[in-house]
Input
Amino acid sequence: MDKYIVTGGKRLAGQVDIHGSKNAVLPILAAAVLVDGQSVIRNCPDISDTRCSIAILRHLGCAVDYDGKTLVVDASTASGVALPEEAVSKMRSSIIFAGALLGRFGEVDSAFPGGCLLGGRPINLHLEGFRKMGVVFEESSDRIDGKVSKLRGTQIDLTFPSVGATQNLMLAAVLAEGTTVITGVAKEPEVVDLQNFLRASGADVSGAGSSMIVVNGVKRLNSAEYTIMPDRIVAGTYLVAGAITGGHIRLNNVNRRDIYPATYALSKMGVDLWSEGDGLVLKANGRLEAIKNLITRPHPGFPTDLQAQFSALLCLAKGRSVVEENLFEARHAHLEELTKMGANIKIEDGSRFTIDGVSGLQGTDVVAKDLRGGAALVLAGLTADGVTTVHNACYVKRGYVDIAGDLQSLGADIRLVRS
Ligand code: EPZ
Output
């Protein structure tokens, strides 16, 4: 298994480009199945989840070309409705293809996406919405076999602003008969990016970013070109890298509005941030204040996908921080590993923990158990005394094209060792 070897103590300096968003590209690749023609998707990050999505597209009969940046999908030859078992077990977000398959072919056949370390990851909101649009699912505990002659527009009131359910129902609605109104939707920027792609392809969808999305079904979607938004979680991760090392860095292409919750939290900790052209500059100034209550919430609240990275940073803040993880019932595997490095953390229950800042962390062997937890351990290694080895680098490579290369370009002493 690959691992990162990090030698701490280097203050980061310089500038870095932020690659395309993992959580925007996955639903947009699913949306390409709805297009009876070619979609050209630019700024597509070369991460393992993109490669997994390409395998699914090809399994469904699409022609796919990818040069590591621009991905061209021709779905005119698509005919399959079954998601490959291996892909679903490797990447639970494969379920995002269900809405597109139901919309294009009126059928989907998939294994149930399991839970993961973060929690049970149920998909009840997805299935309830599909049923309201006329889909009939075979009763089965481990498969999702759904059929519908023609999806019907209707009103769907989400009881929780699930990102995946919002996106899946948007995809099912764009070719449905009539109008679909979805209330209580997720407002994440990646939902807006999906809407932008769908509109570029000729769909009639509006409201993304607000609490209600309205879709008027159209007959077909046309070929289009689209550029994926920068990854706001990668951007937030690199801002923490600058802050945790007492550095001075510039992110070259980031939408500041998308990461406002993270920049606000960093400012509260005493870090200086300012916009410079289309870039964002961070300058740490030697002290980090604790955050009395870092609470993750659906957007525009503090993003759960930055909780682990900020938890690493708070290990070095002056005073006691309290973190509340409200999106996933078990997003705390990184805390045990940070404790091995000398962090002073107390888990009160699965979703609330206190972090008492320490003067420094010690490098040691730690194990990544999920994507963002693994990134947090890399960040902790940047500041720890000595060498930190982060095992299971494969998790981190799901969401970061080349975190080692990016951090090296900012002066970090880090390398990826394949084994
Ligand atoms: C998306 O996951 C992201 N993944 C996650 O990023 C992110 O953490 C999450 O949204 C929240 O922002 C992708 O976009 C590929 P949810 P998703 O449905 O859609 C409950 C990362 O690190 N829920 O908003 O699966 C669920 O149990 C990943 O990049 C239901 O109860 O998230 C969870 O507690 C991790 N029923 C909460 O909602 C449902 O039908 C949030 O889930 C669906 C969800």
Observations:
- Residues 52 and 87 are 6 Å apart (CA to CA).
- The radius of gyration is 21 Å.
- The first strand starts at residue 3 and ends at 7.
- The pocket of EPZ is lined by residues 22-23, 26, 93, 119-126, 160, 162-165, 186, 188, 304-305, 327-328, 371-372, 399 (CB under 6 Å).
